[in-house]
Amino acid sequence: MWGKKRAGAGKETPEAVLQAARAALAGLTDPVGGKALPESGLIDSLELVGDQIILALKATRDSATQMERLAREAEAALLACSGVGAARVVLTAHRAPGAKTPVPPPPAAPAGFAARHGTPGKRITLPGVKHIVAIASGKGGVGKSTTAVNLAVALARRGHAVGLLDADIYGPSLPTMLGRRERPAVVGERIQTVDVFGLAAMSMGFLVDADAAMVWRGPMVMGAIQQLLGQVDWGALDVLVVDMPPGTGDAQLTLAQTVTLAGAVIVSTPQDVALADARRGAAMFRKMGVPVLGLIENMSYYCCPECGARGDIFGHGGARLEAARLGVPFLGEVPLLRAVRAAADAGTPIVLAEPAGDAARAYGTLADALWQALAGRPNDAPATIADAESGTRAG
Ligand SMILES: Nc1ncnc2c1ncn2[C@@H]1O[C@H](COP(=O)(O)OP(=O)(O)OP(=O)(O)O)[C@@H](O)[C@H]1O
Ligand SMILES: [Mg+2]
After folding, report:
1. pTM score, whole prediction
2. Any residues with Cβ below 6 Å from ligand 1, and which?
3. Nearest Cα to 346, choosing from 193, 146, 166, 148?
């Protein structure tokens, strides 16, 4: 639940509100290390969205009980700040200090994002990343990005260390959906992830202007995806969630040829046309030797926000049947809710904006199902760096 108070005058600048918030947090103490909270290293992120403030605190399993108490205190302290209408504190999986070690750059990695034009790809190992999961669909606009973001946050809230890669070079969604636009830091030759809502995130939208991203061509897309994987300091992650562009093209091929994917999750809406595309998407991944971890039905049913009545706008249950037909798990369904869209547009995933709501519950179920599918996989070990077969397509 969000801590809420009556709407205030709200005239403060965002900088002033954040400054007041930091000052308020200075009055709290790290229950483990004994330092004032801002100096403790426990603050993962502090975000202001409108008059809503979201604090992410790093917690380990051992410190969870003490951290929950601290989270309640922090929420009360933030709520007391002038200009804050609602406050939410989330506990995120703590990456052990130093765990974010640089990984060696991929062999023969290109120097610039536009440098490659159809040269054979290299396989890349991300030594600290246990599972890489592609969120895909055959058809555009079915909710891959929304699913990827909320699934990633839901997994992080369950204590897993989670990364989120936006592999949609033409139309990156993460800057909007995560409410972040800043340029990532570069340390040595490694691009640092943007750490937000407890996720390690990266998107081409953080690196280039949206207009520049529009003119990219096939081979450049391949090079860009390889760089986003190989030259970003992903650190130690339980799972890297990859938001794919729509379709069955270069991006999917490049991803599957560059890293060892734990599998693909196919998102579909319930209509027959979308399901036909989902089938094509699943077939493509299987052809590339990538396991299909399951299907998700998005916009599965409609809940009227006024009366709570339920309706099946696009039909319902098609993805479950399709999953059975394909012999893959059905991971769950997400309702069509105005709040899901509004939260995505406002830059706070619905899982955080309304953590007790229907959508958050649905994404939580999906996160559990996906984790179960991953845990059931026999091989957690990362592959070694090896030359890929020279089959990366020239565009
Ligand atoms: N369950 C939902 N309820 C309401 N709106 C949703 C839901 N899922 C997604 N949307 C909205 O539908 C639109 C498309 O979603 P999204 O961008 O996630 O799709 P996508 O499959 O990633 O699209 P693309 O193929 O262009 O990458 C967005 O405006 C998003 O907010
Ligand atoms: Mg998308």
Report:
1. 0.72
2. 137, 140-146, 168, 171, 173, 245-246, 298-299, 334, 336-337, 340-341, 344
3. 146
